[in-house]
């Protein structure tokens, strides 16, 4: 089923908030690569020396990939939310703005994680950054439910989709708790996001969308 990109009756504030958020996520994801370009390969003079220098970049590369994928996970959540959010008031804009504050900090905290991984703060600041950004994404959905910004969803569907976002919050909290011991490896726990979502009886789609026939259904997007 091909779903619509945004609510068909979205107000100007909702469309502009959505577009601005898309741009910030794109810039933050792009800036992540600067953490790799800042790493020195030295002055290798042979293929073996270059291969060794590249192996030394394994941790920065791992941190880059993990940070990029989690940013993509957060952006997917943003996209799904704005498929149903029809309007954004002042409070909603500020919640979204504070979430984006932590999104744009990800390249910085990711570089700290790479450069100072042997220090506690170096290992912890990136998980803290992601936890706060993911938490605010869930808070934004709670705001949308309580403010009536999602007119097309039933209360049960809205709560069901909220539990899907809550799973990421819980996983990011566990990652934060384990990061002093495991460092960036703790982020691999996000691979269990789908499992935790099912345990919480959450989902990314309304119940009626799951039961609707897929053939010929374009879900509002041509």
Kindly describe this structure:
Helix content is 68%, strand content 0%. The protein has 222 residues and is mainly alpha-helical. Helix 1 packs parallel to helix 5, helix 4 (58-81) packs antiparallel against helix 5 (90-115) and helix 4 packs parallel to helix 6. It starts with 11 loop residues before the first helix and ends in an 11-residue tail after the last helix.
Work out the helix count.
9
Radius of gyration: 20 Å
In terms of DSSP E residues, the strand content is: under 5%
Largest sheet: none
- Compute the average pLDDT: 84
**Roughly how many Å apart are the termini?**
11 Å
Coarse shape: elongated
Class by helix and strand content?
mainly alpha
Amount of helix: 55-70%
Poorly predicted runs are: 210-222
Number of strands: 0
Q: What is the succession of H and E elements?
A: HHHHHHHHH
Gist of the model:
This protein has 9 helices and no strands.
């Amino acid at each position: 089923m091909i779903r619509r990109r945004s609510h068909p009756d979205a107000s100007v504030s909702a469309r502009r908030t959505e577009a601005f958020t898309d741009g910030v996520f794109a810039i933050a994801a792009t800036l992540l690569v600067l953490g790799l370009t800042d790493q020195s390969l030295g002055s290798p003079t042979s293929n073996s020396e270059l291969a060794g220098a590249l192996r030394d970049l394994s941790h920065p590369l791992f941190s880059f990939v993990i940070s990029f994928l989690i940013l993509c996970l957060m952006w997917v959540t943003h996209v799904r939310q704005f498929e149903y959010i029809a309007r954004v008031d002042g409070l909603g804009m500020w919640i979204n703005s504070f979430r984006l504050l932590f999104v744009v900090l990800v390249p910085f905290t990711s570089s700290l994680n790479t450069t100072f991984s042997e220090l506690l703060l170096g290992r912890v600041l990136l998980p803290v950054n992601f936890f706060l950004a993911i938490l605010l994404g869930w808070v934004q959905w709670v705001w949308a439910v309580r403010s009536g910004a999602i007119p097309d969803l039933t209360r049960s569907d809205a709560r069901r989709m909220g539990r899907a976002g809550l799973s990421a919050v819980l996983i990011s909290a566990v990652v934060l708790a384990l990061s002093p011991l495991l460092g960036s490896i703790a982020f691999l726990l996000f691979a269990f996001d789908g499992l935790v979502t099912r345990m919480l009886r959450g989902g990314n789609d309304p119940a009626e969308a799951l039961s609707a026939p897929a053939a010929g259904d374009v879900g509002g997007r041509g």
